[in-house]
Amino acid sequence: MKKFFILSFLFLLPLVLGFVLLEKRLAKIPNSYNQKKTRIETKLKDIEFLVVGTSHTLYGVDPEQFSHKGFNLANISQTPYYDARLVEAYIGKLPKLKMVIIPMSYFTFYKQLHKGVEDWRVYFYYHYWNIPIPENSIFDFNKYSLFTIYSPYTVLGFAKQRFKNSGAPNYTEYGFEKKLTSTPINDGTGKDRVELLSKEYNDTNYNNGLADVEYLLKLLKTKNIIPVFITTPCYNTYYDNLNPTILNRNKIVIDSLCRKYGIQYFDHLKDSRFTIEDFADNDHLNFTGAQKFSKILDSEVVRPILK
Questions:
Q1: Cα–Cα distance for residue pair 189/171, rounded to 1 Å
Q2: What is the 3-state secondary structure (H, E, C) of 106-147?
Q3: pLDDT 10s digits, 24-72
């Protein structure tokens, strides 16, 4: 029996060490999460404002166009729960932080990342920032292994390229991602986009989303940091297809939050200064559109408030 255990140990040891090494290599594969973490932590002493939110701000707000130092902490499908926890993780490390720009999109109060089709993203927040996953079991192996998140097929592709892949090739030093690809902009694709976003709409998600926004606002107020609401520009093929009932509900709750917490709201959803040439798709600005919008935000929001 002793010999059996020794042989088993000698057999398993290389496998275990190989798996540990693989996990370490996977952790260093550049992606939007670890790239943001690495880059923001080299700029902590200078940052005066943060941008949070989803792809609307990820692709739409370029801190390098501003007169004050900022960083874009937004990410694809990032919900208010993660906005709040990211700010919470850094708020004590940012001595010059004065403002957080928070997007109010059509779907802000209705999406919960851990319940959506992109729920795999929650594990990257857990791995790189140790942000708890709502309603998650301690027996979820994805919390402990990047291999299971990426899938064997993806990992094999990484190995073939000697783990030099980059999942964040268009990221700038300040967290902004250049949207260089485009898709057709028309009423059909705009309607499809809205229908896709609307699949997760329910009252439970709404109540949780509102609570997450308020959690962030209370956190900022206790630190005397100014929260600002914005809505990024979208093309009419998108906003013409939005549900008026949901738009009205959003307006009521945003107005209520603005009164309760003394927040300014800058709504650029239908900003006529933006034309189809400024968009990569129905509801995302392209690279040049983002530069244009960022300069407007600097002129109309950041400079007047942080003067």
A1: 27
A2: CCCCCCCHHHCCCHHHHHHHHHHHCCCCCCCCCCCHHHCCHH
A3: 877 788 889 999 999 999 999 999 999 999 999 999 999 999 999 999 9
Q: Domain limits of the chain?
A: 1-26, 31-306
Whole-angstrom Cα Rg for the chain:
21
15 — pLDDT class (breaks 50, 70, 90): low
Please answer whether residues 94 and 43 qualify as being in contact, where contact means their C-beta atoms are separated by less than 8 angstroms. no
Which DSSP state fits 279?
B
pLDDT of residue 155: 73
DSSP category for residue 204: H
Other residues' Cβ atoms within 10 Å of the Cβ of residue 295:
14
What's the confidence (pLDDT) of residue 238? 98
| Averaged confidence pLDDT in the chain | 91
Q: For residues 205 and 114, what is the distance between their CA atoms, to the nearest angstrom?
A: 11
| CATH number for domain 31-306, candidates 3.40.30.10, 3.40.50.1110, 3.60.20.10, 3.10.20.310 | 3.40.50.1110
User: Read out DSSP for 186-228?
Assistant: SHHHHHHHHHHHHTT--HHHHHHHHHHHHHHHHHHHHTT-EEE
- Residue 165, pLDDT > 70, answer no
Residue with tokens 């996977």: 26
Encoded tokens for 216: 């962030």
SS3 (DSSP) at 102: strand
Q: What is the pTM of this model?
A: 0.91
For residue 188, the one-letter residue type is G
The two three-digit tokens of residue 276, written as one number: 């189809």
* 83-to-6, 73, 160, 195, 218 alpha-carbon distances in Å: 49, 8, 35, 24, 13
Q: For residue 178, report the phi and psi dihedrals to the nearest 5 degrees.
A: -75, 120
CA angle at 152 for the pair 58 and 35, rounded to the nearest 5°: 25
Give the model confidence (pLDDT) of 224-238 as tens digits.
999 999 999 999 999
Query: Which tens digit of pLDDT belongs to each residue from 216-269?
Result: 999 999 999 999 999 999 999 999 999 999 999 999 999 999 999 999 999 999
